[in-house]
Amino acid sequence: MGTLNLDEVGGWFETEAAPLVLYARQWLDAGQAEDVVQEVFLRLMQQTVRVEHVKGWLYRAVRNLALNRVRSAGRRRQREETVAADVPGWFLPDPGMDIDARQAELSLASLPADEREIVLLRIWGGLTLEQIGSVLELSEATVFRKHRDALGRIRKELESPCHLKIR
């Protein structure tokens, strides 16, 4: 079958680069996330054996490279806490949305890291539960359960009435 040609890689870059950057942002800042995604696409072009499941391969490669960069810097824990506490720009403004983007960001950031990652892969990556399981090395049943639980927590938080004290 051969390796992927330049047009195929270009097509994958066009459709997946932005979601991959968003995915990598949970570990890295914007510039580092973009660098990781570009490096992964360079690695894809250098593959000597045709990659069968390109989308899953891309997400797994971005994940591995991003985590390696964080580990090598010795700041993995610090970065995860920073990202979980203050995640600017996860949602692009859309005046037609019936959802408070800031509250959705806070709800997403409040999830445990493993559940947040699954939701990000599902929403922004458009990966199936099976593909997510492959990326995270989890069973499809575990991914399903964590995804369901995470969405339940988000839904509960977003649907809760405001609890402001009025004096």
Write the layout of secondary structure elements.
Layout: H1 6-24, H2 30-46, H3 54-73, H4 76-85, H5 101-109, H6 113-123, H7 129-136, H8 140-159
Features:
single chain; 167 residues; mainly alpha; Butyryl-CoA Dehydrogenase, subunit A, domain 3; globular
Taking the sheet with the most strands, its summary is:
none
CATH architecture designation: Up-down Bundle
CATH topology: Butyryl-CoA Dehydrogenase, subunit A, domain 3
Tell the overall outline: globular
From the alpha-carbon coordinates, what is the Rg to the nearest angstrom?
Answer: 17 Å
- Which residue ranges are poorly predicted, with pLDDT under 50 across at least 5 consecutive positions? none
Strand content: under 5%
Taking the alpha carbons of the first and last residues, their distance comes to 71 Å
Helix-and-strand structural type: mainly alpha
The CATH class, by name, is: Mainly Alpha
Percentage of residues in helical conformation: 55-70%
Helix tally? 8
Counted up, domains total 1
How many E strands?
0
Name the average pLDDT: 83
Order of helices and strands: HHHHHHHH
